[in-house]
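Supplementary Methods S3. Input chains for the assembly prediction are listed below.
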Amino acid sequence: MKSYNLPSGFDADIDKLKGLLDEYNRGALSAAQLKAYRVPFGVYEQRERDTYMVRVRCAAGCISPKQLQKIADISSRYGANQIHLTTRQELQIHYVKLNNIIEVIQSLKEVGLASRGGGGNTIRNIIASEYSGIDTREAFDVTPYAIALTTRLIAEEDSWTLPRKFKIAFSGSSQDLGYATIADLGFIARIKNSKKGFRVYVAGGMGVKPRVGNFFLDFVSETQVYQITRSVKNLFWKYGNRKNKHAARLRFLWQDLGEDEFRRRFIEEYEVVKKENHPSLKIEQIDNTGLNLDIKPEEVKDKEDFELWKKRFVRLQKQKDLFSVIVAVELGFIDNAQVLKLAKFLEPFGDNVIHLTKDQNFQLRNISGQYLTNIYNFLKNNLANFNRPFIFDKLISCAGASTCQLGICLSRGAVKAIMQALEKSRMDLALLADLKISISGCPNACGQHHVADLGFFGKAARKNEKLYPAYNVVAGALVSDGKTKFADKIGEIGAKNVPSLVEDFLSMYLSKHHNYKDFREYIENCGKNDLKQICDKYKDVPDFDEDKNYYFDWGAKDVFSLAGRGMGECSAGLFDLIDVDITNIKETKRKLLASPGEDKDKKEKLLRELTFYASRMLLITRGVEPKTEAQVYDSFREHFINTSLVEAHFKDIIQAAESKNSPVILAQEKKIYELADRVKFLYDNMDNAFQFKVEQVLTPAGKAAVEGGVCGQLKSKPKIFKDFRGVACPMNFVKTKIELSKMKSKEILEILLDDGEPIENVPGSVKEEGHKIIEQKKKGNFWSIVIEKK
Amino acid sequence: MNFSEEQLERYSRHIILAEVGVKGQEKIMQAKVLIIGVGGLGSPAALYLAAAGCGTIGLVDGDCVEVSNLQRQVIHFTPDIGKPKVISAKEKIEKINPEVKVNTYKERVFARNITDIIKDYDFIIDGTDNFPAKFLINDACVFSKKPFSHGGILKFDGQTMTYLPKISACYRCVFGTLPPKGAVPSCSQAGILGAIAGMLGTIQAAEALKYFVQKGELLTNRLLIFDALNMNFRTVKVRKNPECPVCGDKPTITKLIDQEQPACDLRKK
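Predicted structure tokens for the full assembly:
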């Protein structure tokens, strides 16, 4: 079988990397400079310093036994004792030393493989349904397209300098087994008027802000695959957001431009690409017929076990008397020695015998029926868990907080706990063979929970000021041409309860399964409800003193904490904590409105709670995890009042709440509401880096003041208005200068300033620069200054 | 130009200054400055210019960091020993201010390369340690009409002046030609108080920033001399020399040449 071709300039690329590594070793190149080239080469630094992971591109998941042997060989020589299968049909070699990187890349090259594009803002591995070429339902085999497109794209320089990663996927049928409907660019094979072609989806993807791909083109001829890809790639290259990597994927461009503009620009690019007269892809059909082997079919000892294994892992191909076989690999990790043996064993079966699956297993194909016994015997002799229910090895987990900087929960620990629970259970797991259970340690979705039947993603929750590991529970995803939808959030539970929930829910399904065609039908009808109830059952966690176990994550030695976590995209986990208080505030307000005044004690208590929630809500954004009520108020004063993010006059109510001064609390009811509004206002104007963009917008109070015509007789004069309340010295003056610099002479600027230092300093400084202060007025606790530019 | 929030904060103390303000900071951020010699003088100059937000900083130096440099060349740290000075400095600049674009030239200036190196820059800082280089920089800047700041230090003394094309006296107007070999002791013989390098290098940086914002009086037609042992500062008036061999009415030097004189022994050690 022909794999992708390495580009002619590949040696020069390796030489360049080698040169850079030499420079780095000599100290002539900084780590950051090296990284900029290293990562797009598919070489990532691991959490453990000075060890690296090399991600090997395997287009459409194809890998020959020779290539696989080489990888096992490289891994044992330069890497760890296991290799890793990824959810994007790649292989990873871990724990490589920097000094060995070039040897690893050279060795990969010897068997026609490359790691280039394994990471960074590049064309990533192009995936395809693992059943391409052998699936009875497919329109035609898409594997050759994935391979040919890989060959073409990895030879193009601009494939390495995109605004963000770019994922392409192929599916052979509307079942979308290749996940084309959730890729940046997805192709689904179709036949129209007896011509081969594809339906095209764009701008999909998972992550914290997932989006199902948009239906883009109904039918493009197979000869246009490259032109379409080139046009979308050009569009992305030109207009993608290079500044903010969290909003850079193609789906954000689609959102920013809107569908019409996206399409218009696509056509613009397409017209240019058409004129460039690129040749169509060179499609080389792949032979899935199997070979005549000079091997003797073997006998099996345990016939029953063999039949069970067949039922679990063997599928008939569309080719007569040929079978595909899944070799299960727990969580995608397998020993080098086992890989080596497997690859050697498979060599006689030809080049097109191993594919990598998206659920991190091997698929063998084109196995003639008479040799299934040989495969069985080999696996039995060499792999420990080769014949357990498939549900175990369909489980997907991300790396989790043990090795991932962004992780919140220890997802692998949770998966192991789920496995143990399943092993112990008496459920008929055979009925659950197709069930996809996925778990991500944080909202980033590396565990692909968005497309799971039953999925989890980690979060931090809080009970009585103590944090504990928890998971959001999602279910009911569907991936299919035109119907793809992500899993819905059903509930939230403590991490400790995940295995019990899985067990309960699967038992529930099994008790009802005969009423439904499949799990999908069940989940769409009463499954979600059942799951919701089970979530509710496990929603509450005991107090820390009652059962400490809930405050330790799976496999963790220390009490759960967010300390040491990086501030990546996973900061989304913190938003959950903020949401808790937003809900608390809403609830408390509702209760206050519902109980008008009679019960003073109750009212006082609610107002105090409201003050407490408002004070606590945003502390997490300042990296504070207060343990006591006193700490909440102290931290709020320190981080919000003293920094002028919240007006100083709120100090009184904070103090009243802290000292439980009922008369003051009851008298200041209105102010307490204002405090809650102010905090919410800050939150609404917070960016992803937790900075409050309040200087650039009117505060609610300021807005009201302007609308109410505070500016009196000057109202009619054209002017610019800026609210610099909450902006400390000297930034308020800096911002005033910036505004003035944009204006023309004699134009009018009105600014609002806080009382105290700001009003004592800013007007004087403005005058010193030669501008005229036309008016200076106190408005309650702040000031309005009207300036005429010199 | 629109400043980001971060930039506003970062440069707030510049923007507040009436003489710098928004426009001045913009000019600084568009400026391209070249520092020749990333040693005693170039180190502090580079640090302050980077912190100030100079748009582009070019660094020229052929040497690697040695342990004896660390006493005064403050941009280089102990773990940098053996590393090219331009790389060591670039790393620090990027840490101080990631907005600065840094170009490195790991080479010494010669008649053959200097014109090409300085051509893209608005202002040049002479941070070299030897007379041939100082005269070469002067002549190249006169020919290419580039303003530059001259600086020299020894023991406890420092001197500096700023050259503006056509307007002010050049280095040759004042000093004519190379001193005879042996007339001036080298750094390794005479020594240098590290802080003197900092004093002079920061004056050079200040001159560059003043030049960019076009405010105040530059050290043109004036030579600033200080003796830090007694802490005496004075400026000496100098004049454009009509008979200057390079910028005078009838120049005798019309192309760049590399003159021979042993460089500071310290570097060769």
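DSSP finds eleven helices and eight strands in chain B. The radius of gyration of chain B is 18 Å.
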